[in-house]
Amino acid sequence: MRARADILVLTETDRGIKPPYPYCFETMPVKPVWPDLYRDTENRVSIYSRYACIREYPTFDRYTALCVNWKQNWEI
Asked: What pTM was estimated for this model as a whole?
């Protein structure tokens, strides 16, 4: 599979999955919280992007949610 999206969001994923994007943002690994349900490399959300991050915002749960502001290099 070849991803052509500018932003790719994966849920219930693994850090071993590495699509060819220059930027990646991931939630914390969930094994420390639920050791019987997850492997060391598993996390709930990964966001891959062709755009740099300006800022990452805190969320209600660092194991489940991400909030990222990207630098836009396109015109609307």
From this structure: 0.82
